[in-house]
Amino acid sequence: METVNGKTCISYAELTDGIITASNLKAMVRRGKIRQVRLGGNGRTALYDLESLPMRVQIDVFHRYGNPYIVSFGEIAPKSSDIAYYSCIVLPNGKKLSQEYIEKYSYGCAVLSRCIELHSIENVTWEKLAEAVRRLSAKYKSCLPKSAAGLRRKAHNYINNGAACLVSLKFGNSNASKL
What's the mean pLDDT in 128-133? Predict the structure, then answer.
């Protein structure tokens, strides 16, 4: 499977490998029930829009190849450099970050790095990445925004400013003090 012009497509070989017969596929394309995104020939493979497939065929494709609409981060582990950075931070009140926040921010850096990698290399949209971050937040105690726009802003901030962008500014402020 691959993405062409923002559409998730499946190749002729993948479809005809036990999911649908070649003659049935050609007939459905001819009748307009399946959209063909790219013609095959001269070394190119024919590609078909995954969303245009009938539901029973989509289910067979998902069982065999997995659901391409669900982003998987794989196993995420924080880098030792991030843990060391957050362990050395001294707050305005003279204290250091607690172990809970060190873990939270370190995993946040790892997830954010993976998001940037998936977006730049595999062209995964920020909306899909934000959905994946919402699913991960309980497991990794993430400090990342849940919306696509917020995640994109945080990623650009992370690229420009590094790990410091994840530290909350609530530490050491005087919001709770009485006047």
Answer: 84
